[in-house]
Write a structure and sequence with these properties.
Layout lengths: L14 H26 L5 H38 L9 E4 L3 H26 L1 H9 L4 H22 L2 E4 L3 E5 L4 E5 L3 E9 L2 E8 L4 E5 L7 H15 L2 E2 L1
Parallel strand pairs: 5-8
Antiparallel strand pairs: 1-2, 2-3, 3-4, 5-6, 6-7
């Protein structure tokens, strides 16, 4: 049984935080490259790499702002639909993964861009050396590393970022890449709460034995508010929590 108390921990993220992380990643990546270039005597390439990664950063910020605009539009439409057929003024809240997983995509893209820029400069100045290194397996480590990053990105997409939960005082709507689940609070018979190694999990079971499982390690952003909301709804609808 969980205690009903106000959780003051802030576990939600914002696009401003994402942009700050992107800026720090941009500065850190270029500083590392500058140090490597200084040690290898390739200082003349720093402005070109800085320009390319800077353009990449600007594009990502523009895309992120575009996603924000789409989310605002989506939220507005959802509120309008939610008010039709339910009590007027009822609004929904969201539960989603941490912005950390979106950073994996961005890092993968930036690393790909830097690798392409590096190979292009190498090919332009020392074509024969690059070809020889490729045939001798000198690029194998870098290629394997990039393949690994892409596999991690694909895993994070299906496991984390494609999952989202919309919940109101009337229902829970869980959407992922493979399925969509909707259940009203009045349909829920029991709620099972699991806590293990700082990871929480809710298992909602309906009267017709349908289950919806939500985990804090996947749906981290907004979990504290959701946990408190579940307790309130359990009191209102007299749902047993195990």
């Amino acid at each position: 049984m969980i205690n009903k108390k106000k959780n003051t921990k802030k576990d939600d993220t914002s696009n401003s935080t994402v942009i700050k992380v992107m800026l720090l990643g941009f500065l850190g990546g270029n500083m590392i490259y500058a140090v490597i270039a200084f040690l290898t005597g390739d200082m003349q390439y720093i402005p070109e790499v800085l320009l390319k990664t800077g353009i990449c950063l600007i594009i990502h910020i523009i895309l992120l702002l575009g996603v924000t605009a789409l989310e605002i539009f989506e939220n507005r439409n959802w509120r309008i639909k939610n008010r039709v057929g339910t009590d007027l003024g009822s609004e929904y809240k969201t539960l989603k993964c941490s912005a950390f997983y979106y950073m994996i995509y961005i890092c993968t893209f930036l690393l790909t861009l830097m690798l392409i820029a590096f190979l292009y400069l190498w090919y332009r100045d020392e074509r024969e050396t690059l070809i020889e290194s490729y045939h001798n397996g000198g690029l194998t480590t870098g290629i394997v590393y990039m393949i690994f990053m892409y596999l991690v990105s694909i895993y994070c997409f299906f496991r984390y970022t494609c999952q989202k939960v919309f919940y109101t005082e009337h229902f829970i709507y869980h959407v992922s890449f493979f399925k969509k689940e909707t259940v009203t609070w009045s349909q829920i018979q029991t709620i099972k709460y699991c806590y293990k190694k700082k990871k929480q999990k809710f298992v909602f079971t309906t009267y017709d034995h349908k289950t919806i499982t939500l985990r804090s390690d996947i749906l981290y952003d907004g979990w504290a508010d959701f946990e408190e909301y579940v307790l309130d709804m359990a009191d209102i609808y007299e749902i047993a929590i195990n």
